[in-house]
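Appendix B, record 7
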Amino acid sequence: MITKITDSPVGQMISTWRMSEEGLRLGNQILQEKDDLGEAIVRAVKCVEDNPAYVSVGYGGLPNREGQVELDAAYMDGDTLGTGAVISVKNLKNPIEAAYRLSKKKTNSILAGDGAMKYASYEGLSCRNMLTESSRKRYEEEKKEQMKEEERRAYEGHDTVCIIGRSRKGSMACGVSTSGLYMKEPGRVGDSPFIGSGFYADSEAGAAAATGMGEDIMKGCLSFAIVEKMRNGLPVQEACEKALEEHWRRLERRGYTNRGMSVIAMDNQGNAGAATTLDEFPFVVAGKDGCRLYVASMDQETGEHFLFAPDEEWLKNSKSD
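Structure tokens (predicted):
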């Protein structure tokens, strides 16, 4: 039996998917000991980027139609609104590092392709072949199937890693990283590196980030919409649910089917929230008392949104994502 949560989880960091848990523990430790928000978020994201077991982020990411791993990452400082992003980069070991450094720049802070790689090289950032043997084999198997465009979906159970954090001083920031849609067209970019769609942070109000089908998320600047609802007084959980519901209904009226969108958010007091159009969307909240896994859910028949803390049976039966 699912026990629904009635109060918003409280913490200093929140992240998407179970794959982020190890990284969030590391980031939370940095935040608790040093209160260095930038380092905490970057380290948390890097932990996911470096793990080839997670096939939608960084090393071992699933490739595009030509067998190449293309990566996107972004970082936003909620104090300055400074934003950095790298788009469609190849062989960059940790794209989040480049995005973080670019967020400090006043201009030329969002770079794509060769320009982003030249910047990374100038900054001395590490490069490596991001295609693992496992992801290459999966690509070869998929290529044989010759899937049609309308049949292609985001790889189920894995998606963008999004990390939101709040320092003890009240500063907020957000970092995201992804290899995007599996078997995507070369150069395809989703919502993740675009401010307002895949992420948004403003220390005066809060921060939000999205994961799922980027082409759908971008049609409503979903992350910005959530932050604006918090700015206008809505509690964080209600802001997540209302913004997602409004956007989904907007798409539904245009004939779009539910291809999966999920969001996380944190207000400027550390209250956390999440919502999804999926049956279940795991996310992690961390603070002075450690990390805790939660699940957001939407009843596909009634449209009701709710959160619950998974029990041992759920953890045993669910696949790790």
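Remarks on this record: Residues 154-158 have pLDDT under 50 and may be disordered. The two ends are 22 Å apart (CA to CA).
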